[in-house]
Design goal:
This protein has about 350 residues and is α+β, with helices and mostly antiparallel strands. Helix content is about 15%, strand content about 30%. It contains four helices and 20 strands. The radius of gyration is 23 Å and the shape is elongated.
Length: about 350
């Protein structure tokens, strides 16, 4: 099948300051991987920086994936001593906790380089089944500041899917909070086979609840007559309305709350054209109910929702790009999110390429 080229040209834009955030927002905690998958060393690029994650004697560390000597990737490093990592090329040995050069093995115990330089390290935490990394300068805020409140409840079950996707993280967040796309793009989704999907809303507005932007409206309409065209849409008799609540917050976390569970979406910038899509379905349950929900997730929600349903969104994000726009009333959700980024982001962003 012929591949459709991805359009990436720089075009006239109505949001130049927002476009400069395409590399990501600094000074936030981001989920990077499943905690269970970190054995030994795992390299990755996040917010444009090459990082290598290391598990040493059960503890997690993260440091720049580049030896200060001649630039050899630290992903190939060896562990000669506990709590350290030695570059495979010439044996420059760094302390994992501080990044300090503690030995230059091939220059002898009295190497004058020791204690003079340090490789960059990153704050990391292992919580909620994930490895989190703080991408920023100075003392990081507590992780609790940057995760949804529901994560802090020990009675919640979390089912996680992580995938690397093409496209810019901003468009992925916009898609999550975009009100109108769900009423057309997802209308024929298998996951929503029994759901009566709205056609449009009247009086759509964005409200604030704590750290979240929340969609609200005066009325919801499921069908209407379009002059000269006819009635749209046709609603199958088996479909029923199942209200959901959609929210978004910094630094790009989406929330879709349904009656049975809540789905969180983390959009982690890797580069300007790739992002890590971390989806977490959570539900308050314990013992047998928790086990049954995990089974339900693997049999239904993972494949029909996290994969098939959200793959429609991933495709739209892949082919989205900055340029001239002609926005309509439902885009108040998108423009309010953009304003939030510009007005409330913690100081610092990754420079656009």
């Amino acid at each position: 099948m012929r591949k459709v080229p991805i359009v990436r040209e720089k075009q006239i834009t109505q949001w130049p300051e927002y476009d400069r955030l395409e590399g990501g927002l600094l000074n936030y905690w981001y989920p990077a991987m499943h905690a269970r998958k970190l054995r030994g060393k795992v390299p990755m690029q996040i917010l444009g920086e090459s990082v290598v994650f290391v598990r040493d004697e059960g503890e997690v560390f993260a440091l720049a994936d580049r030896c200060l000597h001649r630039g050899t990737p630290m992903r190939f490093a060896k562990r000669d001593f506990p709590g350290t990592l030695s570059c495979i090329y010439h044996g420059w040995c760094y302390e994992l906790k501080t990044g300090n050069l503690v030995a230059a093995l091939t220059d002898g115990p009295d190497s004058p380089m020791v204690g003079k330089i340090s490789i960059k390290t990153y704050p990391v935490e292992e919580r909620f089944g994930l490895i989190w990394i703080y991408m920023g300068e100075g003392t990081p805020p507590s992780l609790e500041e940057d995760v949804p409140e529901e994560f802090l409840d020990p009675g919640n079950v979390c089912c996680i899917r992580i995938s690397e996707q093409e496209g810019n993280w901003r468009f992925a967040v916009e898609n999550t909070f975009d009100d109108a796309h769900a009423y057309y793009l997802h209308r024929s989704s298998l996951y929503g086979f029994f759901s009566k999907t709205p056609a449009f809303k009247k009086g759509l507005r964005i409200e604030r609840i704590g750290k979240w932007l929340v969609r609200a409206q005066d009325s919801v309409h499921f069908a209407a007559n379009y002059e000269g065209l006819g009635k749209w849409p046709r609603i199958p008799f088996w479909q029923h309305s199942y209200p959901i609540e959609v929210r978004v917050r910094m630094p790009g976390i989406g929330m879709v709350k349904r009656k049975a569970y809540t789905n969180y979406k983390f959009h982690v910038p890797l580069t300007t054209d790739k992002f890590l899509f971390v989806q977490v379905i959570t539900k308050r349950a314990s013992f047998l109910r928790a086990l049954l929900f995990r089974m339900e997730y693997w049999l239904i929600h993972r494949w029909l929702y996290h994969v098939m349903f959200n793959n429609d969104d991933v495709l739209m994000t892949k082919y989205s790009h900055s340029g001239q726009e002609h926005l309509f009333r439902p885009d108040v959700s998108v423009t309010t999110w953009r304003k939030m980024c510009l007005e409330e982001a913690r100081t610092g962003s990754v420079a656009a390429e």
